[in-house]
C-alpha cells in the first residue's frame, strides 16, 4: 500500500480504485503512513473500494471517507462532472 500512496501523491488522473477482496489483512497496511499521506495529498481520487479486506478497519474507513469527501468537494467547486 505504501507504493500506491507514493503514486497517488502525484497522480492527477485516477478517479476510482477497486481493491476489493485483495487479501489486505492488517489495518497497518491500510493505515500505512505513505498510503494515507498519498491520499491526503491527492485531489482527484473520488472512490476507493476496500470492501472484503480484513484490514479495512473502522479507523481506516473514517480516514478514507474524509479524503474522498475532500476530493468530491474540490471536484464540485471546480465544476468537474461527477458521475455515480
Can you tell me about this structure?
There is one protein chain. This protein is mostly helical and 84 residues long. Helices cover 50% and strands 7% of the residues. The protein contains four helices and two strands. The chain has helices at residues 2-10, 27-30, 33-41, 58-77, and strands spanning 16-18, 47-49. Strands 1-2 form a two-stranded parallel ribbon. The longest helix is centred in the C-terminal third of the chain and has 20 residues, at 58-77. The chain is globular, with a radius of gyration of 12 Å. The relative contact order is 0.21.
Strand order of the largest sheet: 1-2
Q: Output the helix-strand order.
A: HEHHEH
The biggest sheet, with number of strands, parallel, antiparallel or mixed sense and barrel status, is:
2 strands, parallel
Number of helices: 4
The stretches of 5 or more residues where confidence is low (pLDDT under 50) are: none
Percentage of residues in helical conformation: 40-55%
Q: Strand-residue fraction?
A: 5-15%
Strand and helix layout:
Elements: H1 2-10, E1 16-18, H2 27-30, H3 33-41, E2 47-49, H4 58-77
Parallel strand pairs: 1-2
Helix pairs in contact: 1-3
